[in-house]
Amino acid sequence: MGLMHSLIIHMSRATQRRANVEQLLSDLPQAQIVDAVDGRDPAQAEAIGWDNGTLHHPAYPFPLRPAEIGVFLSHRKCWQMILDQGWDRALIVEDDLEVAPNSLSRACALLDQHMTDDMVVRLPVKLREKPVQVIGQDGAMQFMLPRVVGLQCIALVVGRRAAARLLAASETIDRPVDTFLQMHWVTGQPIHAILPNGNREVAAQIGGSTIQTKTPEGGRLGREIKRAWYRAQVALRPQKP
Question: Domains in the chain, please, with CATH?
Answer without folding.
Answer: 5-235 (3.90.550)
